[in-house]
């Protein structure tokens, strides 16, 4: 659902940009390459999200999850609901579309992943976590 949501947003932004006069488009030469980069990043994020879901399915019971089963030439997915003690059942993605609120929460979570795990987020991570870690180390020294 994330992939579809972001692709729709990028396509809408591209259409809006291309609807501008050539004069106005020339004032913003980096827009289309930036949108192409957003599209690529969304694909990478989707792969990460699928890996997270795939590697955590065993942790939950009686909950439906979408699972990538295969890709067609357009990279669209077949989604299946996984319910305990039942076989995989096809799910119509159009009937289970995520809300904008859900997508905003997901984007916030992705940003937290960047902050907590990437080199890009190191400065923010250090400013947030190092004082806490130092205080814990002060209160509970490793030599005790």
UniProtKB/TrEMBL annotation:
<dbReference type="GO" id="GO:0032259">
    <property type="term" value="P:methylation"/>
</dbReference>
<keyword id="KW-0808">Transferase</keyword>
<dbReference type="GO" id="GO:0035498">
    <property type="term" value="P:carnosine metabolic process"/>
</dbReference>
<keyword id="KW-0489">Methyltransferase</keyword>
<dbReference type="InterPro" id="IPR012901">
    <property type="entry name" value="CARME"/>
</dbReference>
<dbReference type="GO" id="GO:0005829">
    <property type="term" value="C:cytosol"/>
</dbReference>
<keyword id="KW-0949">S-adenosyl-L-methionine</keyword>
<dbReference type="Pfam" id="PF07942">
    <property type="entry name" value="CARME"/>
</dbReference>
<dbReference type="GO" id="GO:0005634">
    <property type="term" value="C:nucleus"/>
</dbReference>
<dbReference type="GO" id="GO:0030735">
    <property type="term" value="F:carnosine N-methyltransferase activity"/>
</dbReference>
<protein>
    <submittedName>
        <fullName>Chromosome 9 open reading frame 41</fullName>
    </submittedName>
</protein>
């Amino acid at each position: 659902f994330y992939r579809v949501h972001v692709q729709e947003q990028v396509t809408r932004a591209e259409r809006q940009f291309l609807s501008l006069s050539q004069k106005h488009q020339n004032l913003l030469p980096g827009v289309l390459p930036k949108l192409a980069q957003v599209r690529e990043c969304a694909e990478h994020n989707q792969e990460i999200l699928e890996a997270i879901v795939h590697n955590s399915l065993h942790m939950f019971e009686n909950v439906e999850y979408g699972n990538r089963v295969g890709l067609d030439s357009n990279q669209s997915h077949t989604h299946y609901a996984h319910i305990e003690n039942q076989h995989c059942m096809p799910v119509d993605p159009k009937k289970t579309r995520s809300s904008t609120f859900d997508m905003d929460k997901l984007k916030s979570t992705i940003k937290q992943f960047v902050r907590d795990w990437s080199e890009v987020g190191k400065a923010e991570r250090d400013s947030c976590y190092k004082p806490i870690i130092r205080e814990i180390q002060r209160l509970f020294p490793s030599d005790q």
